[in-house]
Amino acid sequence: MIECRNVSKTFIQKGSQEVPVLEDVSIDVQANEFVVILGPGQSGKSTLLRIIAGLETPTTGTVILDGEPVTGPGADRGLVFQGYMLFPWKTVLGNVEMGPKLCGLPRDEARDIAMHYIDLVGLNGFEKHYPHQLSGGMKQRVGIARAYANKPRVMLLDEPFGQLDAQTRIFMEQETERIWQTDKRTVLFVTNNTDEALFLADRIVTIEGKLPGRVQRTYTVDLPRPRDLTGKHFLEMRREIIDASVLTL
Amino acid sequence: MSQEATCSAASSSIANETVGQVVDRGPISLGRILTNRWFLHTVSIVAFFWLWDWLARSNVLGAGSSVLARPHEVLEQLAVLTREELAELTLWGHVWASTQRVVIGFSIAAAIAVPLGLFMALNRYVNAIVKPLFDLLKPMPPISWISISILWFGIGETSKVFIIVLGTFVPCLLNAYNGVRLVEPELYDVVRMLGGKRRDEILHVCFPASFPAIFAGLQISLSIAWTCVLAAELVSARSGMGYIIVQGMNLSQPAMVIGGMAVIAAAAWGTTLLVTALERKLCPWKRKIVGL
Amino acid sequence: MTAYREVVVRTPLALKILPIVSVATFFIAWEIVVRTGVVPDTMLAAPTTVTQLLFDKFTNVDPDGALLHQHAWVSIQEAFGGYFLALAVGLPLGLAMGWFNVAEGLARPIFEIIRPIPPVAWIPLTIFWFGIGLPGKIFIIWLGGLVPCVINAYVGVKMTNPTLIQMARTYGASDWQIFRQLCIPSALPMVFGALQIALACCWTNLVAAELLAADAGLGFMITMGRRLAMPEMVVLGMFMVGLTGAFIGVIIDRVEKRLLAGIRR
Ligand SMILES: Nc1ncnc2c1ncn2[C@@H]1O[C@H](COP(=O)(O)OP(=O)(O)OP(=O)(O)O)[C@@H](O)[C@H]1O
Ligand SMILES: [Mg+2]
């Protein structure tokens, strides 16, 4: 479904310096698979996701989506941004229905779709609120609903829960799993949290901690869902991943 | 930021509330009454008018009544002006004459400068052409254009409107320009991810995001507009509040001068409130900014 | 970290040339418009004429009674007089209003009465009070600069992080100590912002004051140009006002950077 072939990215910074951020990253994602990209801060995870989204062009390599190379951003991929990136001048409803409207759906239809996804993320009753009236978790749900409302074939989530407290985070993870199971899609989920990765993923791709980011290993997680955060297999896998990733730091 | 804050209208601020919490609430005592805000305000206003009155009565500033009028004389003078015509217009006529100039000049400037500012921010080439010219003309205060505008347009309405347009053009354009440049760039990415084109980026991100900055620019412009219209009317006019002030000066009637000042202050204050209200209405998402 | 490879980032040539082209076009068009008589020379003078007058004015006092740099010097004196007075009064007042309730309670109503009156409107009164000499103009300029000084200093203090204030209180700091050691430092960026804004206000009001009541100064030169129907003098005066203003602005900017750098250290 998504195929990153030898993607490398080098930024040119203000002082005219080249900063290599990604090197030779190859990832394969199957249809309806939940893949988590796990890596420490500053390892180029966001950059990778932006490349897949089409917001950045890779320096070398290509991203192939359903057999077609990605050349730019498009509504077939939905990106949930690391910061919430809601439009402060639009209400919750306005934010969510924006995608369908931009894709040319008529007003009523866009509204219905938006209401459906606002419902799905559990925000009914808050349609008329402005983003500054919402809590962090609620904002993130709006971001997720907004990406979903466009019915993209691929969902790209960039550390969506990075700014939440531990409890809300676990709750949101459960919600994400629920939403994914109600509305199956291919999901590429970026995080720096091993538990989160293990809880959600079908497959985990770890990225090395030093720039340029490289793929370190791939783990297949075939534990039954919903997963028990304290189960024996869960903890074993957790230890394995942590041991392997600490070595590279 | 500082410019925005400088010109934001009077409103209670966030900081005001938070810093205010620090003041502890004790039982009512003499000290508390003496430091009560409203009490102090009253004292201050009474003292202001009393001092003014005393200065006017007691010739400290110079010879006799031709230097400063007493407060009640100013009020009487204003009352007279509402009844009797000065240069064929009552007080309201003069207020309207000035306001009209401000509104026309201000509208023309806003209508040109705001789109131009947005355009400059959106297109590097437009920016490269317009910015240097703008930088060249910007340091000249609008008031310094009065003379040349009289040479060009005579002393009629056109020259006054021209000054106002020039004066208000700068802040309108600058704020629109900066408003767009300060937009969070990832918001453009959001629109593109949702399937939007360049047009949508401008429509859904640039415009709304620069709204608050544009409004701040409009507020600054408005106070400049009043200064400009007044200066232009002081130099040459047959109507307007500046004319009242000039007449007061020529007739050595301080009451008329101060009356004119009071009226123009009120008018400036009123238009500021109007723009603030409009902003509240049009930008419901914007939280209060700290201001005096 | 490894030393990254250096690369050269180019800006398109057009972007470098366009500003020059645009300014050049402006001046050439201006020259042509006047030379060909599209705009009569009673209304506008060509840039070359203005330049000629510029050099002439350094040695010739006619017809307005003073040399160019004398006019400029008078204006600068007035502007700086009013400016520094405005800083000296406005900043402490604004800081005090921001922190001390009594100061705010007493000063705010008067400030709110005076604020919406454009400083220009005071000109007739100051003529009554001080005549058309230096003090009257300094008063006008002072009024113009005062308002932004007070507002910025006030807002600066109000933006002090309330948590820090509460922390200081728990350490038993007095009002005065908090004001000195917490509020003033945190207001400094806003205060420095006021330096530029106040200067711009002062400069504008200077021109207004000189247009109406003066016997020397750049504003006076502009007025004389109009009275004598010499557009070249009007234009020269305007350019000098702009140039001097911009020059002072640059100096203030330097000072501001220097001072701010000192604080950061
Ligand atoms: N547009 C850009 N220009 C220059 N450098 C960039 C740019 N975007 C990212 N970088 C650099 O790339 C590196 C990786 O950034 P990236 O945002 O991809 O990391 P990340 O893994 O998402 O980190 P985090 O977990 O903190 O979000 C950083 O060092 C950053 O400075
Ligand atoms: Mg990131």
Automatic annotation (TrEMBL), chain A:
The keyword ATP-binding applies. SMART domains: AAA. Pfam families: ABC_tran (PF00005). SUPFAM superfamilies: P-loop containing nucleoside triphosphate hydrolases. Residues 2-234 form the ABC transporter domain. InterPro entries: AAA+_ATPase, ABC_transporter-like_ATP-bd, ABC_transporter-like_CS, ABC_transporter_ATP-bind, P-loop_NTPase. This is ABC transporter ATP-binding protein. It comes from Nitratidesulfovibrio oxamicus.
TrEMBL record, chain B:
It is found in: Cell membrane. The chain crosses the membrane at residues 38-55, 102-122, 134-155, 161-181, 202-235, 255-278. Keywords: Cell membrane, Membrane, Transmembrane, Transmembrane helix, Transport. It is a multi-pass membrane protein. Residues 95-279 form the ABC transmembrane type-1 domain. Gene3D superfamilies: MetI-like (1.10.3720.10). It comes from the Bacteria. Belongs to the binding-protein-dependent transport system permease family. This is ABC transporter permease.
Automatic annotation (TrEMBL), chain C:
Keywords: Cell membrane, Membrane, Transmembrane, Transmembrane helix, Transport. Residues 72-251 form the ABC transmembrane type-1 domain. The keyword Manganese does not apply. Its main location: membrane. The chain crosses the membrane at residues 12-33, 80-101, 113-132, 138-157, 178-197, 234-252. Pfam families: BPD_transp_1. Coiled coil: none annotated. It is a multi-pass membrane protein. The keyword Transmembrane helix applies. It is found in: Cell membrane. It comes from the Bacteria. Belongs to the binding-protein-dependent transport system permease family. This is ABC transporter permease. The lineage of its organism: Bacteria, Pseudomonadati, Thermodesulfobacteriota, Desulfovibrionia, Desulfovibrionales.
